[in-house]
Design a protein that fits this description.
By secondary structure, this protein is of the alpha/beta class. It has three domains: about 100 residues, no CATH class; about 325 residues, Peptidase S8/S53 domain (Rossmann fold, 3-Layer(aba) Sandwich), CATH 3.40.50.200; about 70 residues, Macroglobulin (MG2) domain (Immunoglobulin-like, Sandwich). About 25% of the residues lie in helices and about 25% in strands. The strands form seven sheets. The chain has a seven-stranded parallel sheet with strand order 7-10-6-11-12-13-14, with helices on both faces. A four-stranded antiparallel sheet has the order 2-3-1-4, with helices on both faces. The chain has a four-stranded antiparallel sheet with strand order 22-21-24-25. Strand 11, helix 10 and strand 12 form a beta-alpha-beta unit. Helix 8 packs parallel to helix 11. The relative contact order is 0.12.
């Protein structure tokens, strides 16, 4: 399957392969974990740390880099080439002769196990299916048309994305990483001048070529980015025009190899380390040039492929992952690819301009029976920016329904983010609440279908539901607030504030209702009331969604 999820396919002949084989070496441990975790700035940016704190996601060993001595030891083995790595999975992607790779386990006691891309070589190897070749259709369907201000109206208003924008939710303070095949001319096209002038492109990296030039390679990423960030006055606007962006290249369009899964995981790890909020991926993986590396439908269970395992870890770090479902609806394969099969990934299928399913949009469910794709956006005749001319074109593919959706997910995430608790020991992630609000707003939520999923979401409804769900939980959180000690001699702390994110206000009133103190609070710092006379006071702790009043006895 062509892993760029635009509705265009190219015939790829199967080459003759030598005894060289791709494999992942998984290590047993990370010897310096405690040192890194004690010094989080050595592995994550401050924004990433702040985002983790806000979401109350603790750092753990998965955040720690792979031990450099392990990497060096493998690199020094003649005949072994290290092609990639993943700290989340504590693994190296290597290429070499099969027996040489197998012998590494006995040579190095820090290697836990080896997984070959050709799973028949593994001890628990699966029977490989015969390769199913997609029905290769025409290249991108691009129709040059004159557009006015409403060129992107349909793909935004179909989802009620305009309602989010009217509420001031345009992606501001959100960072989106686009992991794709290349971004040529994003640095020159007029359609991206607005995000360039406003310093909304924060950087990127070309993992395919291992260099910092990300304004290169295939134009697919340029088209994808345009649906989120493009802007032509009175003619075109993306779904999150005020977001900031990192641009990463992980796809190598000249071939289809399993290495691209590893490169994607590397890019996602980098995005997390930089504090990214949302990742869009308009890529998907099922079949490869070497059919022994190709996946079966049984592998689409969200926990088998390397890329989907990485995606799940990314979600556990607090990333909102949005992925194209794929364009295999008309092919023999038919189903979604990886990492769209991962449980925590928001997988997006395609409809046309009037909301009918696009025939090319891939089917669910996953092989273990989960609903996929979850939601839909316009992917047939989507308005995009032509990377060469800068004109507004139409193009087809879940490659475009996914970023259209990702931009609005970022806008909704702008409303509120963090980790909430509804009871003493029960935590609810706002990322989960956000996804639930979006899914439940979709038009077939109560009657999901294999190609349609839950359907077309309504972001006006999603925002209102999200607002209500977060407010109700915060009301529950307020119940858990306590003042200690009470009675108070000179100072007290407000306990259980660790469940909150952001700033909270404290007001103290005397028994006659006169306000005697007011301040903002962030954590359990001491509140000094030594200057107050003995007696009864009332402390009011509040934010915009509710408040709690606690009686204080000052001794």
């Amino acid at each position: 399957m062509k892993s760029l999820l635009t509705y265009s396919f190219f015939f790829i002949s199967i080459a003759t392969f030598s005894q060289q084989e791709d494999a992942w070496l998984f290590f047993k441990d990370k010897p310096n974990s405690s040192t890194f975790i004690a010094n989080p700035n050595s592995m994550l940016s401050q924004r990433a740390i702040d985002r983790r704190n806000k979401l109350q996601i603790s750092l753990d060993e998965k955040d720690v880099p792979i031990d450099e001595n392990y990497i060096s030891s493998i690199k020094n083995i003649a005949g072994i080439t290290v092609l990639g790595k993943s700290k989340w999975l504590n693994a190296l992607h290597v290429r070499g002769e099969i027996n040489l790779i197998k012998n590494l386990i006995s040579s190095f006691n820090f290697i836990d196990h080896v997984e070959f891309a050709d799973t028949s070589l593994n001890l628990s190897g699966k029977t490989k299916r015969k390769k199913i070749v997609s029905n290769h259709q025409n290249k991108w369907s691009k129709t040059l048309t004159d557009f006015n201000y409403g060129s992107a109206n349909n793909q935004i208003k179909m989802l009620k994305g305009d309602y989010l924008h009217q509420q001031g939710l345009t992606g501001e303070n959100q960072i989106i990483a686009v992991i794709d095949a290349g971004f040529p001319n994003v640095n020159t096209l007029a359609a991206f001048q607005r995000i360039r002038d406003n310093n909304q492109i924060l950087g990127g990296y070309n993992f395919a070529d291992r260099n910092s030039n990300f304004y290169t390679r295939d134009s697919h990423g340029t088209s994808v980015l345009s649906t989120i960030a493009g802007y032509i006055n009175n003619q075109f606007v993306g779904t999150a025009p005020d977001a900031k962006f990192y641009l990463f290249i992980s796809e190598i369009v000249e071939s289809e190899t399993v290495l691209e899964e590893t490169l994607w995981v590397e890019a996602a790890e980098k995005a997390d380390s930089l504090g990214v909020d949302v990742i869009n991926t308009s890529l998907g993986y099922t079949t490869y040039d070497n059919e022994d590396h190709s996946h079966s439908y049984q592998d689409m269970d969200g926990k088998t492929t390397f890329i989907s395992r990485g995606a799940e870890i990314g979600a556990s770090r607090g990333l909102l992952l949005v992925n194209a479902a794929g364009n295999e609806g008309n092919s023999a394969w038919k189903f979604i690819g990886a990492p769209a099969d991962a449980p925590s990934v928001i997988s997006v299928g395609a409809v046309n301009s009037i909301g009918n399913i696009a025939s090319f949009s891939s089917f669910g469910p996953t092989s273990d029976g989960r609903i996929k794709p979850e939601i839909l956006a316009q992917g047939a005749n989507s308005a995009i920016i032509n990377y060469s001319t800068g004109a507004i074109n139409l193009s087809n593919g879940t490659s475009f329904s996914s970023p259209i959706m990702a931009g609005l997910i970022a806008c909704l995430n702008q409303f509120e983010s963090g980790l909430l608790t509804s009871s003493k020991n029960s935590f609810v992630s706002k990322n989960d609440l956000l996804k639930k609000s979006v899914f439940e707003s979709a038009d077939k939520y109560f009657n999901p279908q294999n190609q349609y999923g839950y359907g077309i979401p309504n972001f006006e409804t999603a925002l209102n539901n999200y607002r209500i769900s977060t407010a109700s939980i915060e009301d529950n959180l307020l119940i858990n607030l306590k003042i200690s000690p009470n009675p108070v001699l000179n100072s007290f702390k407000i306990q259980n504030l660790e469940a909150f994110s952001g700033f909270y206000s404290l007001q103290i009133f005397n028994i006659l209702g006169k306000k005697v103190l007011e301040k903002q609070i962030i954590n359990e710092t001491n509140i000094d009331i030594s200057n107050l006379k003995k007696g009864i006071y009332f402390a009011r702790i509040f934010r915009d969604k509710g408040s709690k009043t606690i009686k204080i006895l000052k001794e």
